[in-house]
UniProtKB/TrEMBL annotation:
Alphabetized InterPro entries for the sequence: CarboxyPept-like_regulatory
Protein name according to UniProt: Carboxypeptidase regulatory-like domain-containing protein
Pfam family name, one: CarboxypepD_reg
Source species: Salinibacter ruber
Signal peptide start-end: 1-21
Length: 366
């Protein structure tokens, strides 16, 4: 039985990251009110999917150092103002200087109020959101939703569950050693499809001792191995065999057919991937792609999530990818550029949650 639990993937266009040791750049500037031209202090400014972030000072200034060169997405957010995202390309030889003007936000809904008490229905919705957004992997148990009071939920429409937050959602991940500040724009579950849109900022946590630091290193490697990013980087580098991936084309008519997989065909890298503009790669696949990873066996938590409790865990992980756009742009670090560019099925859908999210700076040990 093919599991129909899926996650529509949103990945912000942040651009490639170079190899360790390469020179880095600087992004600096000011944030001003668009009407009065007054400086805006206490504004969040960060490179999306990274650990490079700052809060503007009293004069609205910020400076981000150590930013890897290449296309980046700079996100600017302040309470009471409209958020903005800028496409930038920092370089090692010259700082990028920007002036960002934010429009005052016109509130069309009542402001969020913090209440010490929540009814039973709200807590049930919170548990549902946490399971869908943070996930149900083993690592999710060590994740704390620090400020759940900023969340609002709506499930009045039949078969649809929505969540939103006026303030950033903060997740402390003691399994990976990061504090994740997520600027949630949209979250929706409709039937078996879950999709979300937002901008994450990572901050490293300080380990309590050397044992915890070692555990974080192990867990980060586990989160990376077999992930969508791991697969796409191996595909770009033409190292699928070395990385223990098998890749197949699966005709859409048989995507959910229970068979011995005689209806799948090997996918040749050169037939689906080609060089694109700005150091990106173009992925084209009119059939669904099936990815089999032999490096790590299935986890029991995956079988629980996929409602396959009676089955014995297999010695490999199977995922499927369906492209929502043709071609799909992939940057060299293994990130998809287009928002909602792909739909993930099976193991990729299970792992594409916040509990296993890694910053773009993460590199597995050689």
């Amino acid at each position: 039985m093919w599991v129909r639990l899926v996650a529509v993937l949103f990945v912000a266009a942040c651009g490639p990251g170079p190899a360790t040791g390469q020179s880095t750049g600087v992004i600096e500037g000011r944030v001003l009110d668009a009407d009065s031209n007054a400086p805006l202090p206490r504004t969040h400014v960060f490179v999306v999917e990274s650990m490079h972030g700052a809060v503007t000072d009293s004069s609205g200034r910020f400076r981000l150092e150590g930013v890897r060169p290449g296309p980046k997405r700079l996100y600017v957010s302040r309470v009471g103002h409209e958020r903005r995202a800028l496409a930038l390309r920092p370089a090692p030889d010259r700082p990028v200087t920007v002036t960002v003007r934010l429009d005052a936000k016109v509130l069309n809904s009542p402001p969020i109020t913090v209440s010490a008490e929540r009814d039973e229905e709200w807590y049930e919705r919170l548990d549902r959101f946490r399971s869908l957004f943070i996930g149900r992997s083993d690592l999710a148990e060590d994740c704390t939703l620090v400020n759940p009071e900023v969340l609002r939920f709506d499930d009045k429409w039949w078969g649809r569950f929505e969540a939103w937050a006026e303030k950033p959602v903060i997740i402390e991940n003691r399994a990976l050693g990061y504090r994740l500040t997520y600027f949630l724009k949209e979250f929706e579950e409709h039937g078996s499809v879950v999709r979300w849109d937002g901008e994450p900022l990572f901050e490293p946590l300080a380990p309590t001792d050397s044992a915890e630091a070692a555990r974080w290193r192990r867990n980060r490697l586990e989160a990376y191995r077999g992930s969508l990013r791991h697969f796409l980087r191996a595909l770009i580098d033409d190292r699928l065999d070395e990385a223990q991936f098998d890749l197949y084309r699966l005709p859409r008519a048989s995507a959910f057919r229970h068979a011995a997989r005689a209806d799948r065909f090997p996918a040749e890298r050169d037939n689906i991937l080609e060089a694109g503009p700005d150091s990106t790669y173009l992925l084209t696949a009119h059939d669904r792609l099936e990815v089999v990873y032999h490096g790590v066996p299935e986890r029991r938590a995956y079988l629980e999530w996929a409602d396959l409790r009676r089955r014995t865990p297999r010695d490999h992980q199977t995922s499927q990818i369906e492209l929502n756009e043709q071609p799909l742009h992939i940057d060299p670090s293994g990130e998809i550029v287009e928002p909602y560019g792909a739909t993930l099925y099976q193991y990729f859908a299970f792992t594409a949650r916040m509990a296993k999210r890694l910053p773009r700076e993460y590199e597995p040990p050689k």
